[in-house]
What we know:
By secondary structure, the chain is α+β, with helices and mostly antiparallel strands. 47% of the residues lie in helices and 8% in strands. The radius of gyration is 31 Å and the shape is elongated.
Amino acid sequence: MKTKASANLIFDPVSKADKRVLKLQVTFNRKSDRKSLGGSVKISKEDYQKRNKAYKEAVEEIRPKLQKAQNIIDELGENFTWKLFRSAWKEEAWGRKKISGKYTNRTIRELYEEYFNNENKKFSPNTKNIYYILLQWIEQFKHNTKLYDITVDFLQELAKYIKEQSFQRRNKETKDTTIAIYMRGLRAVYNFAIDKGYIDKAKYPFGKNKYKLACKKSANIALTEDEFQLFINATPKNYKEKLGYNFFFLSYALDGLNLADIIRIKNRDITTDNKLIVGRWKIRNTFIEEEIQEKQLMDIALYILKEYGTIDPSQPNKYVLRFLDGVEDEDIEQQDIKKKNLNKNINKGIKSICERIGIKPFSLYSARHTYATHGINNGIPIEIMSRNLLHTNIITTQGYIDSISNSNQIKNNELKEKKLQSFKKL
């Protein structure tokens, strides 16, 4: 069992001079290490033994460095290692400005703030919100939580706490997959701490045989060729089935575009030659020119857009689809409510068709997976598919998306024409 490290002053036993320097001695698990406190502070052996005025004056001069050593030991606590101590002592003992803070057992809030203030990273408000939801849970679970508190047991107990508290407050337990979404943010911050040298990688609490993030076993999977054909050949029986059918193939025809992007299409986004100018809504506050693409609208996409709205160039700022009619551009909360309700009805319609034709139910998001899988399986390079899908990770791949060339656009549309030839205009 580890014993706590200690710091003391000793009389340098090596020097043979009449006056010798005082040194710092750190002891941990019966092992000692000596550190210089500055060669100018020297006293005689007699002064050292008698603890007289000369000794006290010498100690007073070097006391701040002794205190810094003790502070490092206290902050490392049970996580003390010689490597961490020596690194911290090298940076801090001589009054140098601490930049990396390698020894510091930072609070999670401090780490979050540093992570988001990193000038090499950019984050959307939605991303920040997800990160800070978990931070709030952490602070409720354990006040002043620090980096070294984040262990496998801590994460397991935190997940249990979130479930219990959410059930008490809303009579509805937070799902494991939702908690996993929150935990990914903490995992990213923890990786950041490792990269900065704040904690050793050996303490990483995530992964196999540690804390494993729940995977969503949902219908967000690609349809097989047979399932795709069965679904496209189905005949919707009611409004919701028609809604689910149309929006699945609208998303597919728009290169797997998400519903959040689809319902926010405005008349100004459609050019006179039927091209759609589109970017990802989820990173709306960090758009740069290269992240906005022009996609050629297929007849099927135009048909469905007109079925559920109006394309009117004379009203450029009006949403094409009717689902956001009357909702102000600034009212993001109401837009999200409308989108969620629409998505719920779409998925109900899709599920109803699936149950009727005998295939496993899936969600609207499967249109994105299906489009991507069909594209790659039919020879479209994965780099081009990534661009078609607007797969923009603004943390690591900022600005990598290029305009899709005409030749690739033609090949892209030929593939979709082939896949959607059985679509029924109802």
